[in-house]
Amino acid sequence: MGDQDQRQAARLVDRVIEEVAAWPHVETNEHRFEGREFTLGPREVGHVHRWGIVDVPFTKRLRETLVEEDRTKEHHVVPESGWTTHYIEGDEDVERAIWLLRLSYLYHVNNLKKTPKGAEMFEEIDVAEELEELGVSDEVRAAFERRGVMANL
């Protein structure tokens, strides 16, 4: 990757970092291999690498659904896991990366809302409404539900 390509990738990644870091209760930390990690308490929402790779963890079933829908790819190093990899090469890829990270964020928020502290902390986030706004498919919603995550949606 040439210098100009590296600068372009870094600018695109910075847009992802700026957006995700602004979400309620998300913390950013350094991640290995020139990365930035997004966490919600002890839970990792995902991470980005400066050269334009975004890795996002999901349940294996949800990851399979997202790959089948061509919304992401299997992880580039551990394809049998629930992790996904998305490559950022342009503006559309930035939006897709943010979409995937928001889906992961909502998964964790929904789980945390089942605890007294999480219910108070994330009171203002309507997971069902946000999933609707994200335009998730019935299959993605079903993958959430199969894990017992979205019991009341």
The total of helices stands at 6
Please write the string of helix (H) and strand (E) elements: HEEEEHEEHHHH
Shape: globular
Structural class: alpha+beta
Q: What's the total number of strands?
A: 6
List its salient traits.
single chain; 153 residues; alpha+beta; 6-stranded antiparallel β-sheet; globular; disordered C terminus; Luciferase family protein; Luciferase_dom
Would you mind describing this structure in some detail?
This is Luciferase family protein. Residues 43-104 form the Luciferase domain. It comes from Halorussus caseinilyticus. Helix content is 48%, strand content 20%. A six-stranded antiparallel β-sheet has the order 1-2-3-4-6-5, with helices on one face. It has one domain. With 153 residues, it is α+β, with helices and mostly antiparallel strands. Helix 1 packs parallel to helix 3 (91-112).
Question: What is the strand and helix layout of this fold?
Answer:
Elements: H1 3-21, E1 26-31, E2 35-40, E3 43-49, E4 53-57, H2 60-68, E5 73-74, E6 83-87, H3 91-112, H4 116-121, H5 127-134, H6 138-146
Helix pairs in contact: 1-3, 2-6, 3-5
Protein name: Luciferase family protein
Pfam families: Luciferase
Domain Luciferase: 43-104
